[in-house]
Design brief:
Elements (H helix, E strand, L loop, with lengths): L7 H25 L16 H17 L4 H18 L1 H18 L21 H19 L1
């Protein structure tokens, strides 16, 4: 575990993820004038911390081990899968949750006798701009660290 603290790739990736998560709260503070710190530990939103994390990992691996290394290749494939999932499957699941929450509200009278439906989490995935912003953030942080 202590060896991870000396691993520059690991620290760069963690910093990228943390920065993306912190920016979510900062953006809400600037736009909505509300300080919502729990956004730092939630999924979804601008920028995509998933995209920032895997883009930072792939960039760091390319810069440390070479752009033709198997480490960069593995990281790049992983980044593609994660970003695709964040903008596809998880985004669709969030839209489905919104619809189900609306249906549950409309049928609330049916739940009056004991059963209390839970509101589904809707902020699951990312839009393409959120994923692009996260990707640029992750690449930028890795370049800043290794240049």
């Amino acid at each position: 575990m202590l060896s991870l603290l000396g691993n520059s790739v690991f620290l760069t990736v963690v910093f990228s993820a943390f920065t993306a998560q912190a920016l979510k709260s900062l953006i809400i503070l600037i736009i909505d004038r509300k300080l919502i710190l729990n956004r730092m530990v939630e999924t979804g939103g601008m920028p995509s911390s998933h995209s920032a994390t895997v883009a930072s990992l792939a960039t760091a691996m390319g810069m440390v081990y070479g752009w033709n290394s198997p480490y960069f290749t593995i990281s790049m494939v992983l980044a593609g899968i994660v970003i695709h999932d964040a903008t596809g499957v998880r985004a669709a699941a969030g839209r489905h949750a919104e619809i189900l929450n609306d249906i549950t509200k409309e049928l609330a009278h049916l739940f009056a006798h004991g059963y209390e439906p839970r509101v589904l989490k809707t902020l699951l995935g990312h839009t393409y701009p959120q994923a692009v912003a996260g990707t640029i953030l992750g690449i930028g942080i890795s370049y800043a660290v290794y240049r």
